[in-house]
Amino acid sequence: MRCWLGVCLCVWIFGCSALWAEEVTIFASDDYRPVTFRNDQGQEDGIGYTVIKHYEQLSGNKVILDMASWKRSYLLAEKGKGGIIGLSKTKARLEIFDYSEPFYESIVGLVVKKGKEFPFNSVADLKGKIISVTNTASYGEEFDHALAAKLFQVDVNYTSDVRLKKLLYDRVDCAVVNNAENSLDSMLKKDPDLLTKRDQFVYLSKPLVRDPIHLAFHKSMKMQAFLTEFNRAIKDAKQKGMIP
């Protein structure tokens, strides 16, 4: 009898584990090139997407990738509704999130309008400017501290094409863009009018910040075991040249 109960208990535990694995949700931005985004065909794409699919292949577990705005993704992850991929570390976030190993280093840069370039070597050079940024994004501790000190103003917009359009029409002084040197053209393709004015956008050569990014879960979800398995997928993907 005890043996039979033990077998039933093992089956029940295994079933719950499998169900848990199938129901893991990871939130992501649909406009965060090259990490997560929707391509020209409207399909999920990006380095983060590649790592998630590789994890699924190695583990046999299913991940529900929920792509929407970064603001929505972050707020849901902050409530413990699922993980979030593409998250950088800050002191405040470390208190509420458990992180994977970094899977990519995002080079965050500044784009300005042609003819309005300015010398940029540090965050101090942004004094007095209006900067277009993404909702709930962090661009490093130095940037966050300068913002809190009101060294500059920010204009918050979700989509990259809106940020660039405001830059084009002199509503802001510069726009913060992830991997702008390589993905600016893809962003401009979202709006035919912007694409015809490609020569009006200039990428400042010095990055604002080099930002290692991760998969993270709210600490209340207790996902350390999942993150350990995900780290193995990251390492394997790097060894196989699947991600930079």
Explain how this protein is built:
The protein has 244 residues and is an alpha/beta fold. It has two domains: 18-104 and 213-239, D-Maltodextrin-Binding Protein, domain 2 (3-Layer(aba) Sandwich); 107-210, D-Maltodextrin-Binding Protein, domain 2 (3-Layer(aba) Sandwich). The chain has nine helices and 13 strands. It has helices spanning 2-22, 47-59, 70-78, 91-94, 141-148, 160-168, 180-188, 192-195, 224-239, and strands at residues 24-29, 31-32, 36-38, 44-45, 63-68, 83-88, 97-99, 104-113, 130-133, 153-156, 174-178, 201-203, 209-218. The strands form two sheets. Strands 1, 5, 6, 7, 8, 9, 10, 11, 12 and 13 form a ten-stranded mixed β-sheet that branches. α5 links the parallel β9 and β10. α2 crosses α9 (224-239). The longest helix has 21 residues, at 2-22. The N and C termini lie far apart (55 Å). Mean pLDDT is 88; it is low at 1-21.
Q: Kindly, what is the distance between the CA atoms of the first and last residues, rounded to a whole number of angstroms?
A: 55 Å
Structural class: alpha/beta
- What is the second-level CATH architecture of the largest domain? 3-Layer(aba) Sandwich
User: Strand content of the residues, in percent?
Assistant: 25-35%
Q: Regarding quaternary structure, how should these chains be classified?
A: single chain
Specify the CATH homologous superfamily of the largest domain. Answer: Periplasmic binding protein-like II
- Total number of beta strands: 13
Largest sheet: 10 strands, mixed
Keywords: Signal
Pfam family, one: SBP_bac_3
Domain Solute-binding protein family 3/N-terminal: 23-243
Signal peptide: 1-21
